[in-house]
Amino acid sequence: MSYTEVPGIRVPIRMWTDPATVEGQALQQLRNISSLPWLHGLAVMPDVHLGKGATVGSVIAMKGAVCPAAVGVDIGCGMTAVKTSLTAKDLPDDLSRLRSKIEQAIPVGRGLHTDPVDPGKLHGLATGGWDRFWDGFDDIAPEVRWKRERAAQQMGSLGGGNHFCEVCVDTSGSVWLMLHSGSRNIGKELAEHHMGVARSLPHNQGLIDRDLAVFISDTPQMNAYRQDLFWAQDYAKRNRAIMMALFQDVVRREFPKAKVAFDQMISCHHNYVAEERYDGVDLLVTRKGAIRAGSGDYGIIPGSMGTGSYIVRGLGNDAAFNSASHGAGRKMSRTAAKKRFTARDLVEQTKGVECRKDAGVVDEIPGAYKSIEKVMDQQRDLVEVVAQLKQVVCVKG
Fold first, then answer.
1. What is the mean pLDDT of residues 142-166?
2. Any residues with CB less than 8 A from the CB of 142 and at least 6 apart, and which?
3. CA gap 305, 328 in Å, rounded
């Protein structure tokens, strides 16, 4: 489908879904965003739903300003996937051992590594510049620098919520490894620090929603935020790279006879800020639950822990600021999901998937999410499908 234009306060809202299906609170949140004086444009992806700070599934393009609460607390959250030389026939009938080995290698939930992972000891890790990266820690907000040890120990850890590691099989039978995570606690600490600073600034006092407080270009506060923001985005990308290297090591050990090979890795943020140019204007584009889908860009759009996921290639639609959805999107809150569904429902909805099936992850049940197939259908002018995957192992925190 093409987009539907909905009236906003300062700019129209371009929606890649039926506005009638969007919850009222999310629509109001979008209208609030459209009131910002610095806003150049606002695009809404088909996985749209109410979010903290700003609407999930929104692409907020501003001139000379950025809203830290719109980026959110998991700065740089995103996806990484890689195709392996394994096929479905190589996988054992019982996948519980493989799941257990992944959980042993990659800390989940609030877990962290006892000793920081040494990137130099990881086989095939392509990401370099580690000394320079950690030297940059000395330049982040002083209020957060005391978190260095924890940040180092959490590098290469999954977290909880909707973060996951999966073994998937595509429609041709090839096995893929896929994971979803972000900047862990250090990203959260930096985000909350800067959100507090933004709310205190005089130019934000008259906003409809104080959560939409912004930093303005060429100010000390903006300079400090940009430095910490881009560092945290780098942390998130490196975190996924470390996890994927650990994940690959598990697979190599579990399938020694196969001599597993891996294709080129695909990685994309979906909570982040990028400097981009549209309509002849230099803009700061915040993708809050959206991936970049410029012409030829590879991306990953997951469903839920019991449904399919997609590897996509961007079509470069400027009307959407070269973006696409970051997933299926929730159709109910975590609290609502816990009230509506039981562990028995989770068992039923995750048949055929080796995963947790207890009450602790009922809020991640597939029934709490929108149809990934419908979401994909609504963004045919944003991306083309390269591969369709279905998980057989799902590790959650």
1. 96
2. none
3. 11
